[in-house]
Amino acid sequence: MADYDVAIIGAGAAGLSVAAFAAQLGLRVALFERGRMGGDCLNHGCVPSKALLAAAHRAQEARAAGRFGIRLPPPEIDWAAVRAHVRGAIARIAPNDSEERFRALGAEVIRASAHFVAPDAIEAGARRYTFRRAVIAAGSAPAVPAIPGLAEVPYLTNETVFELEDPPGHLIILGGGAVGLEMAQAHARLGCLVTVIEAAPSIAPREDPELVEGLRRTLKAEGIALREGAALRRVEPDGAGGLAAVLADGSRIVGTHLLLAVGRAPRLAGLDLPAAGIQATRQGIATDLALRSVSNRRVWAAGDIADPQGLGPRAFTHVAACHAAIVARSMLFRLPARLDYAALPRVIHTDPELAQVGLTEAEARAAGHAALGILRWPLSENDRAVAEGRPEGLVKLVTTPRGRLLGASVLAPRAGDMAGLFGLMIGRRLPLSALAGLVLPYPTLAEGAKRAAGEFFLPRLLSPAMKRLADLLIRLP
């Protein structure tokens, strides 16, 4: 008889979700974690970054209060207090992910590094554990690129940047994706000089260029230097504890700190996957669309470390939760399950936020949708945005010619809060008329979504034929 019904490697977002569900079903669950409970999201990612951004946004609001007729002195940044706020946010959420909670749910939490020794066995802390089913949820780590000179200078990742006891004098960020841009704005608003180096022609290279341009203007207006299409040739020490980034064009950027934000790498090392016959790629554990290993039918993968065939990995906490639901359906109940990212949201949590659900215009065309409807509604036409003095932004919808929503892009304050509305539309394949006819409270930014959807029907409603029909009907008794 196996020691456990379900063995889970990794107590991050995905592993904890599976463990909680399986344990509450009364199954014998072993949860292996060598580091901090809660994984990257709680300790190094979503929670601390959003806490830091919250402090930074308050500082910026104080600077901008004059436009509302409120005179305030320039904000004074107490770095120690900002750090205390970040640590406090982590501490308040930590009990939800704690050993005590999961032991109370019935899981056995084993604080040791785990690796496979057989297709149905794991070794941890010099002890062997057998299982009926296993879930690999070991997550991912910050990617460290092979940059000449990197070994000679100190550098930061998302796992260390929140531990700085003093604010950076000049933070150089390598990578202009979500993490890089969020940390750039956070530190700039907290009084640091910031330079972002992005090798691609544009920051946020995956996002819709039309909306990226608006975000770019905001970041530049706040003093963030953006070096786009810039290849980094090497880094080297400069002065007392400083460093310099030397670009391919010969320019030299001198800073005090370097933050690497160029992506994630799956935590495969140390798992000894061959011992269990588990196939892996450079991107993670190879699975089918039910997240089951393609080579060991006892094993599933979830979260950043999963590499589902045809879809690839996604390093988002909400994807980890989605994966946990798929695993529960497939592994625990033997029900059909199939991962689908058609309505998957992603958000760059800057201010304004850039949210994307489904396909961008470029992605839709690349997917073979030659004929598209493009609907736009600028925030300058949204009463709530105007009232709050934030009229810069855009809602952009990508539809089929028949009015089915394929994707939505939003640049707006709290744009991520609209993502659920678009996700429901795409995921449930609701007609665009459902959004256009929705009654929303006034005034809200979400009205921009409704008004953009209404643009699909407006030309038909105001066509000459409809005008003639209205003229005829009004004459009837």
From TrEMBL:
Swiss-Prot/TrEMBL keywords: Disulfide bond, FAD, Flavoprotein, Membrane, NADP, Oxidoreductase, Redox-active center, Transmembrane, Transmembrane helix
Every Pyridine nucleotide-disulphide oxidoreductase dimerisation domain range: 345-452
SUPFAM superfamilies documented for this protein: FAD/NAD(P)-binding domain (SSF51905), FAD/NAD-linked reductases, dimerisation (C-terminal) domain (SSF55424)
The organism's place on the tree of life at top rank: Bacteria
Keyword rRNA processing included in the entry's annotation: no
InterPro entries named in the record: FAD/NAD-bd_sf, FAD/NAD-binding_dom, FAD/NAD-linked_Rdtase_dimer_sf, Pyr_nuc-diS_OxRdtase, Pyr_nucl-diS_OxRdtase_dimer, Pyr_OxRdtase_I_AS
Membrane spanning residue stretches: 6-27
Cofactor(s) it depends on: FAD
One Pfam family this sequence matches: Pyr_redox_2
Domain FAD/NAD(P)-binding span(s) in chain numbering: 4-313
The UniProt record lists the keyword Hydrolase: no
Family as reported in the entry's similarity comment: Belongs to the class-I pyridine nucleotide-disulfide oxidoreductase family.
Protein's recorded name: FAD-dependent oxidoreductase
Organism: Caldovatus aquaticus
